[in-house]
Request: fold
Amino acid sequence: MSEIQSFHHAAHWGRFSVLTQDGRIVQVEPADDDPAPSGILRSVAEWVDPTHRISQPMVRKGWLENRSRTGRGAEEFVPVDWDTALGLVASEITRVAKNHGNASIFGGSYGWTSAGRFHHAATLLKRTLNLVGGYTGHVDTYSVGAGAVIVRHALGSPDAFMGYGTSLENVIRHGETLLVFGALAPRTAQNESGGVSKHLLDEKLRKITAEGIKVIHVSPLREDVPDHVGAEWWAIRPNTDTALMLALACEIVAAGRYDAEFLRRCCSGSDLYLAYLRGESDGVPKSAEWASAITGLPAERIRELARLVSDTRTMITVSWALQRAHHGEQPFWAALGLAAVAGQIGTPGGGVGYGYGSLGAVGIHNTASKSPAMSEGRKPIRSFIPVARITDLLTRPGETFTYEGETLTYPDIRLVYWAGGNPYHHHQDLNRLRQAWERPETIIVQDPLWTATAQRADIVLPASTSLERNDIAGHRRSSRLMAMHRTVQPVGQSRGDFDIFRHLSRLLGVEEAFTEGRDEMGWIEHLYNLSRQDAARFSAELPSFEEFWRRGYVDVPSFDEDMTYLEAFTADPENNPLGTESGRIVLGSEALARFAHADSPPHPAWIEPVEWLGGETAARHGFHLISHQPRTRLHSQLDYALNSREGKTAGYETAILNQADAARLEVKDGDVIRIFNDRGACLAGATVSADVRESVIVLPTGAWYLPQDESERPLDLSGNPNVLTIDIPSSAFGQGCSAHTCLVSVERYDPQ
Reply:
């Protein structure tokens, strides 16, 4: 038996070491300086278990024989060699581009396959397609689509929600009140797009408690803030946070406690916003009583909170989840309006922040120097959709849609190439997607695993996992660059994403432009050196690549951790204008008034969602479904592995419901329940709790989609909430995902 070898590695959920012996993984050890390693590390070794892996290139039988589009998801696959598979892929790309134009190729590939910045499947796919004429892609993210659009419009940049807002350390040192809308939990903060170097959120939360900062937690789910914080829990009705924010602002204005000078100096359109709060524009003052009827919260408590927000240094934090809803732009905008009315913006410890806890380092780290990133190259064509409009793209060719005030047209998609992602995890109304998935002539999926997406492809290309290749991790919010050493040989005939696209680019005649003469290690060293050169701008001397690769990580320059967002702007707006229509914070928008979208008023507003517990359909269904991020995995990754399996109930994804609801339904812990609406149905294992609001059920995302059959609306046997979620835009302006606007029915179910 050979000696045990140790390799540095990193994943989205942390830095770790992999110990191997005789080519097999024997242990995974978290970094010794990580104070709160993620439990997902327990599942890492199962990445190389061949049980769920794609062993070699595959082509669906009907497509191979006669290019049939029927049979996706049900028909058998034929194994082929790499030359044959990539020859088919190259010929299809060439055919579609020649006959229909490059806009008819959809380079989807929204996914989190690896924390590596070199073997980044989506980027490498786009780099390849850009070299042969381009493709239709996407803008924004499912995570923060609607919020991103409105924040860019109202604040002029994405800084506030991308980790460059006020730091949590600043709140700890200067704040008095922390008003949390949604979640601020280590559950979601265990992950980052380019890897977490250290998990520090829990440490920050304990400091907040130690400093005596009062925490108000507004959410239907108590566990969205850890118990040790001692937060005051406000169990709000889902999708009504905007109404509460507006009422708080209205009460501050009505009491004469608002900062009129700040609104005059630093905001535009505030008169329009104030008129709406007072009810001058629609006859309805946005008072505490008005909000109480919508949110289910007592009016007097709302007035008390308004006084607290205006009288103490208050940070208002809004999690990304709140904007994944119908009219999801509004809570992000209304939170900004509340902070502006209270005069908190630009003050140490106060203001508004977005996404604290939504990813591992938001509010924790702000990297100053360049992060390693592979380039997509120049885009030859401008063809895109908002990220959550996939089904509309496939079913509505030639029809128009709006985005940020622009009218665009859906192209006629003939070929879909998906690399490193799983839309059958993250997209809404999966039964609607399944029907749309039949329309393209060819679907290519490149992935390590037999996901539901791979099972519904025509050509399947087996990619290796990060454990089977070398890479580099890091991102704009990371305090470190991290080495990702290859730990074991590739499983079966799988190849690294770079090798797959290098071979494909050769067949397409663009290999030299794709590789730029570099191999895997050449590119990794090049990307590291670009970051190293940029760090010199901040008088930071990073070690040589050889030293970095041996040590496994290197610290990079970061901004001051005691950072106040918009401090320079609020001190001197004339000389530090924002990138908005007015150079000020936009509370009343001239552009939105011109666009005249019925669902996008020119100021923050309460607009009734299409489905909510205060609406007409509530009597029919009775439960609001929250499909939040799971504790036991990242999205759908490693759902089959140990850490995820242990979090399931009766073999199904675990759903949490209130004790009173459970008693009414005669459901107890461990029972199997059926969750359903007109869009679909799934099974789940029940957990009964007092820590979720009545008439709310919580079912995490990420269970691997497992339909009972291929009928129009089959029962999902895994507990995937996206068979239930609604697939409509947040608004005509933002076009974000509306997954958290979803009513369902629940019943006890006997699997026998």
The CA atoms of residues 725 and 739 lie 5 Å apart. The longest helix spans residues 82-100.
